[in-house]
Amino acid sequence: MAFDIEMIKKVYATMAERVDKARDLVGRPLTLSEKILYSHLWEGNPSQSFVRGKDYVDFAPDRVACQDATAQMALLQFMHAGKKTVAVPTTVHCDHLIQAKVGAEKDLAVANSQSKEVFDFLSSVSNKYGIGFWKPGSGIIHQIVLENYAFPGGMMIGTDSHTVNAGGLGMLAIGVGGADAVDVMSGMSWELKFPKLIGVKLTGKLNGWTSPKDVILKVADILTVKGGTGAIVEYFGEGAINMSCTGKGTICNMGAEIGATTSTFGYDDSMRRYLAATGRQDVVDAADKVADYLTGDAEVYANPEQYFDQLIEINLSELEPHINGPFTPDRGTPVSKMKEEAAANDWPLKVEWGLIGSCTNSSYEDMSRAVSIVNQAVENNITPKAEFGINPGSEQIRYTIERDGIIEAFEKMGTKVFTNACGPCIGQWDREGADKQEKNTIVHSFNRNFSKRADGNPNTHAFVTSPEMVAALAISGRLDFNPITDTLLNDNGEEVKLLPPNGDELPKRGFDVEDAGFQAPAEDGSSVEVVVSPTSERLQLLAPFDAWDGKNITGAKLLIKAFGKCTTDHISMAGPWLRFRGHLDNISNNMLIGAENAFNGKANSVKNQLTGSYDAVPAVQRAYKAAGVPSIVVGDQNYGEGSSREHAAMEPRFLGVKAVLVKSFARIHETNLKKQGMLALTFANEADYDKIQEDDTINFLDLTEFAPGKPLTLEFVHADGSKDIILANHTYNASQIGWFVAGSALNLIAAGKA
Ligand code: MIC
Ligand code: SF4
């Protein structure tokens, strides 16, 4: 059903030839990342060696995956591309639009009725264009990709930042915006700046309470949320080989949180075991024939400092469990330091909820290790102090853990089993009492913990940790509980010490499932009709954006100067807004409502320069649009961190914002802005950010000479008539300037000029 062994064999057949050629060209041993990159060049065999972090290169990915919340925009755009079917194997997964409230059965039924129109749309577009469709309840995109499609040495893109999860099976899997996916689905090349390479050498062996999650929590702490930008993180060493395949997936998954382009591991026995257990012995047989090409050259791993741009070494034998947060995934605290840290920062110590799941940590191994802690609580008569919820990663996992008694064991402790879907991880959580906005703590095994993300409450302190630590902290009800040293009091008043978790990497009796939830597309979809109601509030056909008029932009108003962290959750919030992901006009009403205005410290309150009064950001921008006044957005570091959602770029484009000028960008968001015909600019001198004033009017002085490598000059006219000239850098190459000129990259595809 699910994977295409012939395609994989083809990839392997070209790999040997291209990798050897690349090795000769580069004149040295190759990392795994380079092998996969060079063997997926669009133009075939490599004819030059690329400068990392500098050269834009065209690639030919093997697959595309989209999830429901981003697929709507991606497919609406694809429908404009004028193609009969997708050019590479593509799947759509319904996982983000399902709310977690009472439990899987009821919640799924509610989602199926509330989002029927959207699911029907996705299913019929998939059917028409040859796309595999995974129904609501089938599972979270990245677990399904790992279980069915990922393969060592492959390259894929997906319209979700955590597509990188497939690095656990030795792929280069990269998160992109929908417009990038449309390129590949339309049979065109996909462009990426040749990444820098960060090597992470893992020595020793995980033990006791430490898990793969702690590796990435530690790496995030070291590299911070922007430390991986523009880089591939390649893990190697005996510690890597000793780890399960889904554990590797967890590590790669959260590479999105350090901004990494992707992360990967060399092909090894853990991957063989996982492929075999998920019914893909033929992939193992094919991969074994080219095994040397599916990992870095031995010389590279023996002398990594010579081949990577940056090297990190972590000794797994000494690694402590980590708890990262609140509000950002890179604030790492080893469990032994939590007592001091929590007290020093006044973090609420009482844990209200423990949540296990998300695409990051919802594997069979995760569930079985977490339940080993739960079982100890039940056996020792300990009543858990916090509430507990789990989201299995896929129907295959859910079915198997039910068969193996794991669900029953969770339920004995009062755990709510939510749908196999994203749920609370993306704010699809109807948490009782969240509207009271009380300060509280939750712990979860997800990857992101930005403000308001899980339950909409800005005072919820969310901490990220491993599933087994979530279980321990939720049972104890305390954030500063250290299971390695502390004991718990059971209901008989006795002290109990929890034993370290243990579990099965893979189900002993194999995976099982009755209905995985897959729907194959029609052989010939040409007669399938896709209907979008013109009165729908959920879906809206796209109208092309206007082309550039060839003139300098003048008289633009400053819409907002955003201060501090401005993730895609701040720019285009998820949770309740997810339902408008297919309707550009409606979702634009959330534009930048979470961003902090640098002038008054408030969210969603900016000055309307036409009236002098303060209003919500979307309302002010709509006023500028109605008056025909252009505007610009100014931002801080790592602007657009987090999600791949291109709504964060399309909304400002749609509402008439012309440029986004920031100290630095997250990769996917910068590309999304470019693709939608916006100007994505960075301060040549970061300190110029401080010169921007609330009542500024902005004139571009040399946009008419927009060219690769040449900074743009902007004049900021302040209210008192004084001016500042500010230089803005950009990374547009010639074809990307073409997107700006045409109004969007899609306009070029639709005109057959791409
Ligand atoms: C996320 O984890 O933030 C999401 C929701 O999966 C996003 C995609 C989206 O916004 O739909 C992502 O990571 O790209
Ligand atoms: Fe879904 Fe959360 Fe994973 Fe994003 S990070 S794909 S919302 S489970």
Low-confidence stretches: none
* Hetero compounds: alpha-methylisocitric acid, iron/sulfur cluster
End-to-end distance, in Å? Answer: 34 Å
Q: State mean pLDDT (0 to 100 scale).
A: 97
Strands of the largest sheet, in order across it? Answer: 22-26-27-28-31-30-29
Looking at this protein, list some descriptive labels.
754 residues, six-stranded mixed sheet, 31 strands, globular, binds alpha-methylisocitric acid, binds iron/sulfur cluster
Q: Could you explain how this protein is built, in words?
A:
With 754 residues, this protein is α/β, with parallel strands linked by helices. Helix content is 31%, strand content 18%. A 7-stranded mixed β-barrel has the order 22-26-27-28-31-30-29. It has a 6-stranded mixed beta sheet with strand order 6-5-2-3-4-21, with helices on one face. Helix 15 links the parallel strand 14 and strand 15 (387-390). Helix 3 (68-78) crosses helix 7, helix 8 (212-223) packs parallel to helix 10 and helix 15 crosses helix 17.
Brief overview:
With 754 residues, the chain is α/β, with parallel strands linked by helices. 31% of the residues lie in helices and 18% in strands. The protein has 25 helices and 31 strands.
Question: SSE layout and pairings?
Answer:
Elements: H1 5-26, H2 32-39, E1 56-59, E2 63-67, H3 68-78, E3 90-93, H4 104-114, H5 116-129, E4 132-134, H6 141-148, E5 155-158, E6 172-175, H7 178-185, E7 190-193, E8 196-203, H8 212-223, E9 231-236, H9 238-241, H10 245-253, E10 262-265, H11 269-277, H12 281-289, H13 298-302, E11 310-315, E12 322-324, E13 332-334, H14 338-345, E14 351-356, H15 364-379, E15 387-390, H16 395-403, H17 406-412, E16 416-417, E17 440-444, E18 460-464, H18 467-476, E19 488-489, E20 495-496, E21 518-519, E22 556-563, H19 568-571, H20 584-587, E23 596-597, E24 606-607, E25 614-615, H21 617-626, E26 631-635, H22 647-655, E27 657-662, H23 667-675, E28 679-683, E29 697-700, E30 712-717, E31 723-729, H24 734-742, H25 745-750
Parallel strand pairs: 2-3, 2-5, 3-4, 5-6, 8-9, 8-11, 9-10, 14-15, 14-17, 15-16, 17-18, 22-26, 26-27, 27-28
Antiparallel strand pairs: 1-7, 4-21, 12-13, 19-20, 22-23, 22-29, 24-25, 28-31, 29-30, 30-31
Helix pairs in contact: 1-2, 1-12, 3-5, 3-7, 8-10, 11-12, 15-17, 15-18
The chain binds alpha-methylisocitric acid and iron/sulfur cluster.
